[in-house]
Amino acid sequence: MKFLGVTVTLLFMPVLSLFGFAAMGLMPVLTVLAAFQIARRASTFAFMRPAREVLFTVLRREDKYKAKSFIDTFGYRCGDQIGAYSYKGLQALGLGLSGISYIAVAVVAAWCGLGVWVGRKQRALADAQAKRDQTASVGDIAAPEAA
């Protein structure tokens, strides 16, 4: 993450998912699914979680804990439910694994856009925070006798 930056690190997982779902659409076989799942789980721990944690570093402590709590409970649980129901719903519409995988490609493309936006927002907030910290430090040095 130090060399790539937060935005690129955030994009690793959705880009991997983009290729994985495209591969599943072309070849819906167990070996592709297994390889895709292994790669996704490994990249979650190697890239996604650390990048996600960095996003919270620019927030106030109170905001960070409220956001993390909401995301970890509501966000993940709703995501799991939506994923389960949408898969069954798409199957009910007559779509097989290939068709569902191609729909997932479009959803993951939107995820890529969200990753770019969130990464840029984090960078802007980090820059603003660094500027505030630098201004405060210069003010402390400039007037030491006022204390």
Topology:
Elements: H1 6-26, H2 30-55, H3 61-92, H4 97-142
Helix pairs in contact: 1-2, 1-4
Task: Provide an overview of this structure.
The two termini are 40 Å apart. The longest helix has 46 residues, at 97-142. 85% of the residues lie in helices and 0% in strands. With 147 residues, the protein is mostly helical. The mean pLDDT is 87. The chain is elongated and about 65 Å long. The protein has four helices and no strands.
Proportion in helices: over 70%
Percentage of β-strand residues? under 5%
Task: Look at the helices and sheets and give the structural class.
Answer: mainly alpha
* Average pLDDT taken over every residue: 87
Gap between N and C termini: 40 Å
The counted number of beta strands is: 0
- What is the CA-based Rg, rounded? 21 Å
Give me the strand/helix succession: HHHH
Main pleated-sheet profile? none
List segments where confidence is low: pLDDT < 50 over at least 5 consecutive residues.
none
**Number of helical segments?**
4
What is the general shape? elongated
Summary, kept brief:
This protein is mainly alpha-helical and 147 residues long. The protein has four helices and no strands.
Distinctive features:
147 residues, 4 helices
